[in-house]
Description:
Four copies of one chain form a homotetramer.
Chain A: E1 2-6, H1 10-21, E2 25-29, H2 33-41, E3 45-46, H3 50-53, E4 58-61, H4 66-73, E5 86-89, H5 95-107, E6 111-114, E7 117-118, H6 121-125, E8 129-133, H7 137-150, E9 151-156, H8 161-191, H9 196-204, H10 211-221, H11 232-248, H12 254-268, H13 279-286
Parallel strand pairs in A: 1-2, 1-4, 2-3, 4-5, 5-6, 8-9
Antiparallel strand pairs in A: 7-8
Amino acid sequence: MDIGFIGLGSMGRSIAENILKAGHGVRVWNRSRERAQPLEALGAKLVDTPADAFSGDAAFSMLADDAAVREVFATGLLDHAPRDFVHVNMATVSVAFAEAFAREHEARGIHYVAAPVMGRPDVAAAGKLTIIAAGASAAIDRVQPVLDAIGQKTWRIGATPQHANVVKLAANFALASAVETLGEASALLAGHGVAMTDFLDVITNSVFPGPVYSGYGKLIAEDRYEPAQFKARLGLKDVRLALAAAEACSTPLPIGSVVRDSLLDAIAHGDGEKDFAVLGKVAARRAGR
Amino acid sequence: MDIGFIGLGSMGRSIAENILKAGHGVRVWNRSRERAQPLEALGAKLVDTPADAFSGDAAFSMLADDAAVREVFATGLLDHAPRDFVHVNMATVSVAFAEAFAREHEARGIHYVAAPVMGRPDVAAAGKLTIIAAGASAAIDRVQPVLDAIGQKTWRIGATPQHANVVKLAANFALASAVETLGEASALLAGHGVAMTDFLDVITNSVFPGPVYSGYGKLIAEDRYEPAQFKARLGLKDVRLALAAAEACSTPLPIGSVVRDSLLDAIAHGDGEKDFAVLGKVAARRAGR
Amino acid sequence: MDIGFIGLGSMGRSIAENILKAGHGVRVWNRSRERAQPLEALGAKLVDTPADAFSGDAAFSMLADDAAVREVFATGLLDHAPRDFVHVNMATVSVAFAEAFAREHEARGIHYVAAPVMGRPDVAAAGKLTIIAAGASAAIDRVQPVLDAIGQKTWRIGATPQHANVVKLAANFALASAVETLGEASALLAGHGVAMTDFLDVITNSVFPGPVYSGYGKLIAEDRYEPAQFKARLGLKDVRLALAAAEACSTPLPIGSVVRDSLLDAIAHGDGEKDFAVLGKVAARRAGR
Amino acid sequence: MDIGFIGLGSMGRSIAENILKAGHGVRVWNRSRERAQPLEALGAKLVDTPADAFSGDAAFSMLADDAAVREVFATGLLDHAPRDFVHVNMATVSVAFAEAFAREHEARGIHYVAAPVMGRPDVAAAGKLTIIAAGASAAIDRVQPVLDAIGQKTWRIGATPQHANVVKLAANFALASAVETLGEASALLAGHGVAMTDFLDVITNSVFPGPVYSGYGKLIAEDRYEPAQFKARLGLKDVRLALAAAEACSTPLPIGSVVRDSLLDAIAHGDGEKDFAVLGKVAARRAGR
């Protein structure tokens, strides 16, 4: 396929690479052109404007947040897209923005697929992301070969694009809760002189298998928060989006509030750029340790 | 081995059965004798007093809580145990009680092993419990053949008995947090018209595998809280014990407080005997659904 | 003085009336002209555009929120103000907006005074508001005669305009906390069959005198939330602004999070237009009553 | 009247003095006899056993907590009280204990009046306590002259003794909430460079008059937590009793949970013996200040 790609952050670059490797033609645009150059060697065509990337069969965008998407699209990108074009937005944006953005596409006859992903940069590089996609079935069908190059599985959440964003935010909310919980449990264990590793051995081999409890648990057990795989500051962004999505439907998320406060505590102590697991340090500090 | 067994609740009975099936001699005592009778057919000897069970090589007890243990042992059980006797206490008791109880054993030269278990009654029946054991290594070694008949794995947490209780409570705290989180996530999803099952498909096949997210998630998705596998009222008991253990070492557990409040809400609405997953109903109610 | 007045909500109209009664010339503008007409009888001059009101010696504006202020000022109002003009903004706006808005005034040489007020509409009508003012001393001095017609006391918080907004939000945060606390206390008392009025008699005549505890306490005791003096929905707006102001300086406000969740619960149950005291109903519902 | 008095902590001693000064005969007992001696000079009779004090017309007791009351009364005090005797228990005890204790009195035909008080030691010394009394009207009538010597006002809460304890705990819960709120507000203000004293001037002269906001607010503004008038550790005791009373009637108190966590944080940092206002320090620490 003839694919445009916008946004080459650490996630975006790996994703674009995998699309290239799968044999698709890719025109890439990034605010800073240098980040795009390594892709040229892999066969990508570097273009000068977002509009140049927003053409062909479909475009994938992977931008940082609502503001970044708004800024790139403020140039009227949607007004000049070809007929029957598919735009796949992989960014974790707010539900409110996702909804409005979907309507803007619809008004112009552009197919809009929300396809936020789960997985850290190393998972993206391996082409093993979990993709949560929503939008018109036919539109997803058309880009499915590209999605298959990016992720190990695409979960389809229905025809309403922002539903994919809700699922993504709910998943990250659950992740945030688990990390905070591990931090609090660690403080409790330490208060009684019990090793966090003993606790982790028990739970990760029984009720809580999987990467979250073992991965973040290990970081907390080792009190090691750098280098960050998923920064506390970005974790707060996602918790904030979940709280906003919940507020929009008058839904209290008390756990979300707790995690938000702990993340603010982390940031206030200069740990915003450290790994999300730094919540363990916050819990320890609350307990005077 | 010649084993005494005290306490035949739904967990205790299955455990005693598995000990019998493994070929050990078992003298059983239970407050209500009828509950003990089915074990007689399997070869157990029914005894009339706790003291009759607190003899032989070792005794296992599985009583409801601190108060139940205290009551049974108030009769001076510890004063007449044979030399070199091992008492394995499988109950989920408070850390403070566990510590004091361990000292009482030590003062009388009785070996004390704290061995709380993880797993619901069906897991107990299958002999697949996760056992968290702490106490003198030699004492655990002696009862290990019996523990092997009960659980799929014994995790040893060191020589300080109450450490096993801390780990158990921390694990149940993590469980409680996960269930509350699923409840809140469900309310968020419902508020946007997204199916909980879609969300569960994504997370249980990626970041959150394992029985907790899929099992409790399913109950919440189906809004089905009976019959209860793990009752909300008993969940509150464990959260309360975790909060007390944390308070004893001046450790705030904000997530614990949130879950406690939600469980009180459930109980206030008459749902204390329903499954722990009823936290999903509480979260939905808070959102006016 | 020759005063312009923008924004005639229930607060604004009473304030404008008091300025008129104090003998000042007042040109008023409101989005809906009908609301302005009663003031004509009192001597006000009704003008057709915000710009007509943004002239003379000074202008006072009392608009609903950031968005309303932004919209009215988007027409370039600041670009045509006379030299040495003073703008007094009485709205409860976000701290971030207040700061940016102050800079916009400064860039154009317009004196900007932030003067949010405390007090319900009946207090505004009586000219007894508590005014929290910040901005250049000389600018406040010039409008002080007008402020004296509006409030019983002007508290000066220094030269940085948004500081007045911070104080206002902190005060409303404290108010919100007190109302939530009264709601929770009421649920506790009811659970033990104790009359809320007995409790209120004790505390309002001893440690908690003043209008908040007696006023909101009475509404909760009587379970009477209409007509609303201060709507739950607007209370949530202020709590949200306090949380945002706190987040901007990485400050957790756990109490703020609790109140936010309770207010969402109220709104989810259709009580957003009822009095803030409806938090008492939320607390009772949590307790199954 | 012929009065017995048990328990001469800092509150008890001032109360006993005021009873003596009002002309009543007072037999005093205290665990440590030295603390009682200063009262001898004022005309008190020092007695050797609690039973010696639990005689005459009535006895007042002011002990630290449930455990202290239980210990003193474990000696069978209630079994030997004279007919028609009135016992006035001024301690802040748990509601559950108060209820059981009232029943024990009733079973023996002893009149039981629960009369917890509000006010710090200096208020007690001045005879200006706020007394919250519950029990049979006739019994309170009989001791009213003594209560009048102790407090400026006795609030009668009905015939069920423990209702007085519920009111007392609810009042202290409200106090705790106000102090936490002031702490959080202070952190918010500091984050924006606004003086806490400016904020306090505004609110204590308008919506929040009275001793709580001005008194605790001043301590927080001055970051001065010693000497303690009301220790954080004792504040936690009262919050814990309020949470327990609420749990007994399945009533969530989210604000209570927040304050409990903050107090644990204070204690974990070695500030348990400092004034309750040290919650301001906790809030500042959470914000990295």
